[in-house]
Amino acid sequence: MGIPIEKLLWMYEMMVKIRHYEETMEEVYMEGKTPAFNIGAGTVPGEMHLSNGQEPAAVGICAHLTKEDTVASPHRPHHHAIAKGVDLNRMTAEMFGKETGLGKGKGGHMHLFDPNVKFACSGIVGAGIPQAVGAALAAKKRGTDAVAVAFIGEGAANSGAFHESLNLAALWNLPVIVVVEDNQYGISVPKDAATAVESNHLRAPAYGIVGERVEDNDPMEMYKVSERAVERARNGEGPTIIEIETYRFLGHFQGDPELYRGEDEVPTLREKDPIGRLKEYILLEGLADEAELTERENRVKTLVDEAYQFARESEYPKPEAALEDLFSS
């Protein structure tokens, strides 16, 4: 099963876009804050959880989704939102707390919602799984072929929401896919210290559904596994659990001292950067040349830069606007 060239190039372009977005946020988030403790509201208020290194989980499955498919995301949502096609300007403005944001600046980075592409971000561990099951139930009742995807961290697979939701999804044969991003840590707790099974895809047979695992943060393998899962869901063959072995290059949150990680852990992971590996494959296979890839990189980086500029230039909401929204809802 080969991957179409246009899909490979889309995945590469999207991964570069996500990475540039997150690397820019790394810098912008610290503006106006005391580095040691992230004290001060700064340009971007609230906590910040970035997804550098975890791009394959998002692009591998979103390459198969349409605007009519639902994605529910957790507290580390940017890669999912960008891959699903959330409005980048409004998404960035939301994180800045601006009036032009997706939620008029009221939700921040952990509560991103874009109904135009059916994207929702719960911000609470495991809370997106029931949302995705609900969306899948709605799609089935309406007789459409839409699917729903819930992204979670591997730590959320130990929550009640995971098991209750998958039991219902399997019982009702719903078109839902749960993507478990195994980035090795639940906050600061290693996976093997908190989870009884080696991989969460092994939990699937308990519900009579399909489970698959993607090793070594491989975007191409994630694409192939996701293609099978989405096809099963659209054909009425029920839910799938996909666990992908992925790596976050940064801490659980910005400012995390990361005392739980080994000294050489992150440098070693960065040597396996999935973006560089996919680029090498594309060049070696002659699917594009360096000039074409550079053009694509520059184009998406410009879009990201424009989104940050849009957010900076947008106005903060007026205090009375909150009351107007309250009484008009």
Question: Describe it for me?
Answer:
The structure is a single chain. The chain is an alpha/beta fold and 329 residues long. It has one domain: Rossmann fold (3-Layer(aba) Sandwich). 43% of the residues lie in helices and 11% in strands. It is built from eleven helices and nine strands. The chain has a seven-stranded mixed sheet, sandwiched between helices. Strand 8, helix 7 and strand 9 form a beta-alpha-beta unit. Helix 1 crosses helix 3, helix 1 packs across helix 10 and helix 4 crosses helix 10. The longest helix has 25 residues. The protein is globular and about 50 Å long.
Instruction: Let me know the CATH homologous superfamily.
Output: Thiamin diphosphate (ThDP)-binding fold, Pyr/PP domains
Q: List the strand order in the largest sheet.
A: 2-3-1-4-5-9-8
Beta-strand level of the residues, as a percent range? Answer: 5-15%
The number of distinct helices, counting runs of at least 4 residues, comes to 11
Give the C-level CATH assignment: Alpha Beta
The tally of strands reads 9
- Alpha carbon gyration radius: 19 Å
Write down the domain tally: 1
Overall pLDDT confidence: 94
Shape annotation:
globular
Low-confidence stretches: none
Largest sheet: 7 strands, mixed
Per the CATH scheme, the topology name is Rossmann fold
Q: Based on helices, strands and strand pairing, what is the structural class?
A: alpha/beta
How helix-rich are the residues, as a percent range? 40-55%
Distance between the termini: 50 Å
The CATH architecture term is 3-Layer(aba) Sandwich
Order of helices and strands: HHEHHEEHEHEEEEHEHHHH
Protein name: Pyruvate dehydrogenase E1 component alpha subunit
Keywords: Oxidoreductase, Pyruvate, Thiamine pyrophosphate
GO biological process, one term: pyruvate decarboxylation to acetyl-CoA
GO molecular function, one term: pyruvate dehydrogenase (acetyl-transferring) activity
